[in-house]
Amino acid sequence: MAQPAQVVPDSEAAEPEMISGGHLVAKALRAEGVDVIFTLCGGHIIDIYDGCVDEGIEVVDVRHEQVAAHAADGYARITGKPGCAVVTAGPGTTDAVTGVANALRAESPMLLIGGQGALSQHKMGSLQDLPHVDMMAPITKFAATVPHTERVADLVSMAFRECFNGAPGPSFLEIPRDILDGRVPLAKARVPETGRYRASTRSVGDPADIERLADLIAHSEKPCVLLGSQVWTTRGSDDAIDFVRTLNIPAFMNGSGRGTLPPGDPHHLQLARRYAFQNADLIIIVGTPFDFRMGYGKRLSASATVVQIDLDYRTVGKNRDVDLGIVGDAGAVLAAVTQATSGRTSTGAANRKAWLEELRGVEDAAYQKRLPRQLSDASPIDPYRLVHEINEFLTEDSIYIGDGGDIVTFSGQVVQPKSPGHWMDPGPLGTLGVGVPFVMAAKYARPDKEVVALFGDGAFSLTGWDFETLVRFNLPFVGVVGNNSSMNQIRYGQIAKYGEGRGRVGNTLGDVRYSEFAKMLGGYGEEVRDPQDIGPALRRARESGKPSLINVWVDPEVYAPGTMNQTMYK
């Protein structure tokens, strides 16, 4: 006789697996491939740390939230994966605003997660309560509050998806404390799977436009191309190299596009850009807006055919009319154009030898004119000599980071990274203070690479205390401070506008021995006043295996041409 089935009391039923909001954040970060968060601790966000420990995500804690945000930006640039910064509510989030704004203008995909008071205390005046989403909305591609613990991972993945909508950029999520600390059945929470919640963004634009550009190139005698930051953002360097070499087109590079072609490549040009833009019959602008760096498009010849390729539809044709606009992935578009020319009787490549020789002559003349200053033995040290020594010091594995005003403007003319993705600067927001956090991100993401950073003394002062974080996490780099005890780029503008008598108002700094600062925090440091000592000091910093600062005293009465030509002073 069959025995009757036993009824298990509800109290003895299997308990569902529960998970907290902080652990859901960590699962969503892991699904995106994030292996590190940059953070400054706060009571609102500690459950995220607990989740990161379980998911194997490194927690790099810094001394200021601006550094965390800049480091997340830098991590995205180096790896191609979105960076992530986690900060507490109120002042923690407001401290990170500058880093988020910089990522927006630089088109860098990063997620800032900010804490918030409990939803149960909404509008009651909880600790550090501020309208974070309202503040972040204008400087992000996506900003939202997570309303329920079950939605945490879902909204993290949504934020990442928005980071890559068109041109990349930052997103912001505010997660209230009770949402992070709350626990829900794992089965009820949507945790998106890796690779299944974002589509490819490698669009080639309208095929008819690809054919039209191929035709324009085939009939051009004097083309040139500017390879901008989106070439690196889209990891299109190989496609850009193939495009330039196959079609025999002289190339200039800016932003993160620097290093696409190595120095010495016959198509690599730097100093002849103004001449090329005035004399070319076809100008192709790739991944660079017509902003202040381009004279809002006015620096391009009015008679040239102008083509603009960009990830963002809103950028194409902004500030200047174009003859052809293509919205798409820089690498994919260039590869498609190269392919489109392959079946033609002539691509025009053979006819451009004279044009390349013409530009090379302009380039060489400009280089020879400046070379005496690059080799100058003057004391105080000519900034051109300093950046020349740095350029000579770089290897194919050196990631170069520029953080400053006038001194970094000098370096933009001289320093040439030797590989793609080996140049980092703030981008068009012109933010000072990115150097130390960019070093942190670059050295963490690529420990196999040497990192070399040039700071203005004013720029280093903004985030320099996180030099200690580099020591604490054993992230060695070669740091150089071009020290003129001034905010010299602004000083020049004040002298130009108000005269020498008021040239020192609000821009003069103390004579700080930054080498001693480095040594105090456990790093390596040297003072340099003789230009002959720059190279040996750089080599000793490399050999030290520590975070380092070589404090080089440069002439405060010398200004970069780019500083003197800035339109804000006209």
TrEMBL record:
User: What is the protein's name according to its record?
Assistant: Acetolactate synthase-1/2/3 large subunit
Q: Name one Pfam family in it.
A: TPP_enzyme_N
Say if the entry is tagged with keyword Lipid biosynthesis: no
Q: Which organism is it from?
A: Actinocrispum wychmicini
Q: What is the lineage of its organism?
A: Bacteria, Bacillati, Actinomycetota, Actinomycetes, Pseudonocardiales
Task: Please state every residue range assigned to the domain named Thiamine pyrophosphate enzyme central.
Answer: 210-336
Thiamine pyrophosphate enzyme TPP-binding domain: from which residue to which, for each copy?
A: 403-552
Q: Can you tell which superkingdom this protein's organism belongs to? A: Bacteria
- GO MF terms on file? acetolactate synthase activity; flavin adenine dinucleotide binding; magnesium ion binding; thiamine pyrophosphate binding
